[in-house]
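User: I'm writing a tutorial on reading structure tokens. Could you give me a worked example: one chain, its sequence, then its tokens, then a sentence or two explaining what the tokens reveal?
Assistant: Sure. Here is the example chain.
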Amino acid sequence: MRTIGFRSNILFAIAAAFGVIAALGRPWYAPTPGAGKDNGVGELPSTMENFFSGVGRAFSGSGGTSGWDALERTDVLIAGLALATVALLLLTFVPAIQLHVQALARWTSVATFLVVFVKLVDEPGSNSMTEPRQGVMIALGAAAVLVASSMTVAAAPSRRRTPPKTYTPPPAPVYAPDSSYGPPQY
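And here are its predicted structure tokens:
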């Protein structure tokens, strides 16, 4: 089975980083329908039907606040980490610094994924009043692709170009003039 190559993984990582940044323009959070209604205990009823309808709205709901608006400073952090990962992955083409930037690219991609995941779990504001939307799901998926691609690039062996060795044939054997050649004969 053939795997995706070094350069192809860098292209996937570039596309994933732009996917993370583009997802910041999509809706990340929206008010929960029925939020603010009092059910007698001061919070929303927690039933399985509400959970599954919330998951359905997370993937299909088009309204809400974009990531650029909802995340105060974290949006710049997410975009910066994604762009830093791309820059570090592009620097892996330089053989002299490849080993050093591979580890940094791995960590910046993991940091991008973790920040997006934290923002999925811990929405800004009151968590019972908002729920995630498709932008955070797209960003999470793109960040996962970014991690997978940068891990593959980071695991690649060093790309030092060495000139191919030229073949030098061994010297011809020197034979004694009166000796016998071949196996001994009895």
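What the tokens reveal: The chain is about 55% helix and 5% strand. The first strand starts at residue 27 and ends at 31.
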